[in-house]
């Protein structure tokens, strides 16, 4: 059974949403990224997304884009991403890689799937991959028992939602608003409607991302979604911290705050 599926089922059994946290590999440095990810898991994250740094992060807002640039400049490579996945997965937390498609394609789709599975990774979130172009990944993920998470947006038609949900495994990623990632002052009012629309086409959990940054917003999203995804708020804590220990402590504190939010929701 998928570790992601297990994580969502455990959260549902506790009558709450799952907390999904994102951190880019190699930021602000490899050691701090590992320590922060493990702190995130210990403080209440049910699933962790490890970002694979890419030179053209079209969906990412300035906070994550700056972090990814810094990570690439410092020499982070696919092996470093897989090492971070292995460190998290070894502690028992479901771990996905969030990646644009080009790095996977360049690495070799089946080879990437094989090495990800060997590292204990649960699967991939692929924001720029469409079902029509996903045949190699669908085959590789089936071969290596990996989850595949695709994105739906408020602009997605019912037919498109059905097509995307049909190829997902693990959960469906519902982008709460159009545009790039980043924290927002309020949860988009259309997010709940999007979740309801997705549920018309699948029994998979539906997790909402883009914009959540605090306990109140996490509680609000947890009131209508199966999962709450937080990325930019974590990365900002890392970026603003004066040192390694402070960065890890900041991520731990934010995780605990968000974890209490999904339980309130």
Structure notes:
The protein is α/β, with parallel strands linked by helices. The chain has one domain: TIM Barrel (Alpha-Beta Barrel), CATH 3.20.20.70. Helix content is 50%, strand content 14%. The protein has 12 helices and 9 strands. It has helices at residues 3-13, 30-43, 62-73, 78-89, 101-107, 109-118, 135-144, 158-167, 191-199, 215-222, 232-240, 244-264; strands spanning 18-24, 47-51, 94-98, 123-125, 147-149, 151-152, 172-175, 206-209, 227-230. A 9-stranded parallel beta sheet has the order 5-4-3-2-1-9-8-7-6. Helix 8 links the parallel strand 6 and strand 7 (172-175). The longest helix has 21 residues, at 244-264. The two termini are 27 Å apart.
CATH domain fold name: TIM Barrel
What would you say the CATH architecture is? Alpha-Beta Barrel
Multimerization status: single chain
Classified by CATH, the class is Alpha Beta
SS field, number of helical segments:
12
Order of helices and strands: HEHEHHEHHEHEEHEHEHEHH
Number of domains: 1
Question: How confident overall, as mean pLDDT?
Answer: 93
Q: Give me the Rg, rounded.
A: 17 Å
The fraction of residues assigned to DSSP E strands is 5-15%
Range of helix content: 40-55%
How do the strands of the widest beta sheet line up side by side?
Answer: 5-4-3-2-1-9-8-7-6
Structural class: alpha/beta
Please provide the count of β strands: 9
